Structures are given as C-alpha cells and as structure tokens.
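Before the break, one more example. Copy the sequence into your notebook; we will annotate it together after we see the structure.
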Amino acid sequence: MMSSPSLKLLLCILPVTFAATFDVSVGAAGNFKYDPQFVTAAPGDIVNFVFHPKNHTVTQSSFDQPCVPLAGGFDSGFKPVAAEGGGLPNWQYTVVDTNPVWVHCEQKGHCGQGMVFAVNPPAEPSPKSFAAFQALAISINGTASATTATAASTAYVTPPAPQWQTATATVTVANSVWTTTYSSYDGTPPPTPAAQPANHKISVGADGLTYTPSNISASIGDTVTFEFHPKNHTVTQSSFLNPCQALDQTSKTGQVGFKSGFLPVGADVTTFPTFQITINDTAPIWGYCGQPGHCAAGMVFSINAVESGPNNFAAFQDLAKHTGTVAAANSSVTATSPSATDKPASGALVGANVPYGIATVLAALGMVFASL
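Here is what the structure looks like once it is written out:
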C-alpha cells in the first residue's frame, strides 16, 4: 500500500505531468491572425505564443470590448521580429480556469481586421462564441465601441507623407563586400540580400476583394509572385499618399512603377495566371487593384511596410478606403505585359506575366469584360 507522503508527492506531480502545451503562431506569413484562433484548454495548460514578423502583441481584453486592454489583464508587450528564421521570440500564458479568456493584438489596425484570439470560448451558436467575438472586433474597427468607431470615421485625418533619407551601408555576404545606397525609412530592415532568396506568393482575389496576404516582408533578391483568381483584377504599383492611382500618374521624379494589366480569370479554371516582381530594395512598396471600386473597398497590398506609426499598412488601407473613388477613372488600362526595361519605382523589378489560355487576348479588352 502506498504511503501517505508518496501519495502526496504523486498528486503534486500529476498536474505538471499531464499539462498540455498549445503552440499559437502570431502573425505568420504576414497574416493578421493567431493560428489557431482559439484553443480549448484545462487549468494548468500552457499557451505558447510564437511571434513572427513584424511586430505584434498578445493582450488580454474582454468580449464586449475586444480591442481594448483589460484592466489588470496580461500583456506580452510588442515583440518586433525582423525576419523569419531560428530564434523566434515566444511568450507563454498559463491557463487558470475554464472561463473564457479574450485576446487581441495591440498593433494599430490589427484588431479591427480580426486579429483576435480566445481560450475556452463558448461553442457555436452561443452569442459569445469566438466567431461573435471576432465579428464584434471587426464591426467596431478596433475601437472601444461602435459609437466611437463612427466618430473616428467622420473625423478622418489624412496621414502625413512618409519620411525617409538616403543612406549608405556596407553589405557583407559570404566572401563579397560592397557599399550600397538605399532609401532608409524608420523601421525598415537593412539592405542585406537574403542568404537564400525566397519566393512569396500573394493570391489576388481568392478570398474576395483582397490580396492574401496583403502585407508581407521580403528581403533583397526575393521574388513576389501574384497569382490571379476570378474575376478580373490588376497588380498596380502606387504610392502611400495616392493608394488608388498608378505611380506613373503621381510621381514627380519620373518613377514608372509596375503594372500587371487586367487579368480576367474564369470561374472554372485550374491554372491561374501569375505576375512576378523581384525585390531590389527594402523601401516600402505600395499597390492596389485597378478595377473600379476595388481599391476603395480596401483591395490594396504592401511589401516591407513599416509596422507602426502613421505610414503602416493599416493607415495605407484606410487612406485607400477614404480616397479610392478617384482611382480607376484616373488610371490608364495596361493590357499588355509590362516591359522589363521600364524604370520601376524603388523597391522592385518587373518579372514575367504568365497568363493562361486566352487571358492575354481578353486582357486587351480590359474594362469591357470587367466583372465586379
């Protein structure tokens, strides 16, 4: 028969031995998302948050105010991450009881785009399910309440122009050393080429009027491939202050920018047309869809945007929604593939435009076959 001291020791060990650990990715692949978005855990279990680029938090809130820090609640603080790779920072929360715990990201604009998380949320169709919590965060756009969100919308103020300076850096890769001059923005990474260039895929229109993901980080030498889905979209470079107008129409320095042209895609296709650029600078790249109404609906993207401050992706998208009505009417339709000899804006070189079947022919008809 087990002695009393031994039994007590065993009982002390059991909760630790059987505690589960849940790994949750924060902002992986440039998405404003916790993955998974909620977990069902027992007291003593550990939720291990692993942070990905660029800069996010794990901040406790409440169901009724999903994007407002809870007084006395936990907060990881901001965890800036420059690039993917080994040594990603993490932060852990130990589950206290079985009551729901609500979480959001404090980075500007992230909670309002649905970047929330929960521990032990009630199941559907409860009015306090995770889906209801996330919908509430989006509906009030990351503010304290629907009333304040409406007030914020009517009091919209255009963000200031991005500030940058020309900088010089010495770059060392393997046995090669050289000096480079680049556009330095507050918060952008140094101009170091990727040791192993990567290709980043962005889906165009696969999830509605959006680029997925819509905000990514890429190193010099990396490529970005845009894959087009139904119905008819473009990838057109713009600028921060003019999000829904082609760069060549607003630039005062002769910048051309890249344009994919319209690429109509049928609903039953299995091979999708693509458009590719190569990153040659760490300066932010801004872009939009030239289909009328799409940019104004928030269909914009950024590459290497700063994470915080008035010139981040959330501010860019918000500006597009407020000024996008002038977009397509003022933008020229480019039906042919862009030339690799065009002078692009700082940040990218145009690659190949590879449509399927008769997409190139249809693209020449541009707006005629546009289907919103």
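The longest helix spans residues 4-17. The chain has seven helices and 23 strands. Try to locate both features in your own notes.
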